[in-house]
Amino acid sequence: MTTPNQSLKLFSTIAMRNVLKEIIPEFEKRTDAHVTIEYGATAQLSERIRAGARADAIMAVSTSIDELIKENILHSGSRLDFVSSDVAMAVKQGTPAPDISTAEAFKATLLSCRSICFSKQGASGMYFASLLKKIGIEDEVRAKALVLPEGLTGEPVARGEIELAVQQMSELMQVSGIHIFAKLPPAVQQSTIFSLASFTETKQAKVIQSLATFMHSPEVAAALHSQGLDPLL
User: Fold this and answer.
1) How many distinct structural domains can be found in the chain?
2) CB of 58 within 8 A of CB of 197?
3) For position 147, which CATH number holds?
4) What is the three-class DSSP state of 56?
5) Under DSSP, is residue 161 helix (H, G, I), strand (E, B) or coil?
6) Phi/psi class of residue 96: alpha, beta or left (left: φ > 0; alpha: ψ in -120 to 50)?
7) Sign of CA dihedral 194, 195, 196, 197
């Protein structure tokens, strides 16, 4: 149990927003700690941090966590991997879903679709951009793509402005009015590990340790599952 009135400032990837909205009130109740959260794509958070922004802890893509540890911004040894996330695709609710069951079908769908939306700085968007280049259809897809600098790619799909959305499953699940029809096929899928780590300057080490323990609890595992995430227990 932490002492009353302790505050914890947390930076978090957007992929964790719905989960944190569900679990943080229970964490605060158990620990008497007050948690404030600022959300952003991992790349955006990393840019802000390198420009001087600070919190007590961060939840973000593990590779970015490692980079910040090497730069002595995050505490070495504090990284805790707690969840794995896959990339999925969505269409507007009520719209027929295309076939992406194989790598070949996935490529054909990308070439034949009217339009597609992916993120510029999110882990899924950066991976998707590299994938387009790898499979040789970067120019064709980018010509009809909306690349969001931030936010949820499902939103323009829900409004009927874009045909397909690509993003982390948990981010697509934050948008109403869309149908998440499939994850990317195994041959082109990339699972992303999200981790928790503490900043070197934090004075809230005990609260962060309590949060780390809480993130591996059955209650959190259930919340992660409900948002299309795979807990790493």
Assistant:
1) 2
2) yes
3) 3.40.190.10
4) coil
5) coil
6) beta
7) negative
Instruction: Tell me the per-residue pLDDT of 158-216, one tens digit each, with 9 for 90 and over.
Output: 999 999 999 999 999 999 999 999 999 999 999 999 999 999 999 999 999 999 999 99
Angle of helix 205-215 versus helix 17-31 axis, rounded to 10: 120
Alpha helices in the chain, H assignment, sequence order: 17-31, 42-50, 62-70, 103-112, 123-134, 138-142, 154-158, 169-172, 205-215, 218-226
Q: Are residues 22 and 115 in the same domain?
A: no
- Count of CB atoms situated within 10 Å of the CB of 56: 22
Q: Give yes or no for a contact between 221 and 204, defined as CB atoms under 8 angstroms apart.
A: no
Is there a contact between 105 and 188 (Cβ–Cβ < 8 Å)?
no
Q: Could you please report the per-residue DSSP string of 201-218?
A: T-S-HHHHHHHHHHHTSH
Q: Which run of H or E residues covers position 147?
A: strand 145-148
- Give how far the C-alpha of residue 230 lies from the chain's centroid of Cα atoms, to the nearest Å: 12
Residues 139 and 211 in one domain: no
Q: Which tokens is 110 given?
A: 């990308």
Burial class, 171, CB count within 10 angstroms (exposed 0-12 / middle 13-18 / buried 19+): buried
Q: What pLDDT shows up at residue 5? A: 55
Residue 136 tokens, joined: 């040789």
Does residue 1 fall inside a structural domain?
no
Structure tokens that stand for 10 in this block: 């947390």
Structure tokens at 223: 């919340």
Residue 42 sits at the vertex; the CA angle it makes with 39 and 48, to the nearest 5 degrees, is 75
Lookup: tokens for 216: 């591996």
**pTM of structure:** 0.85
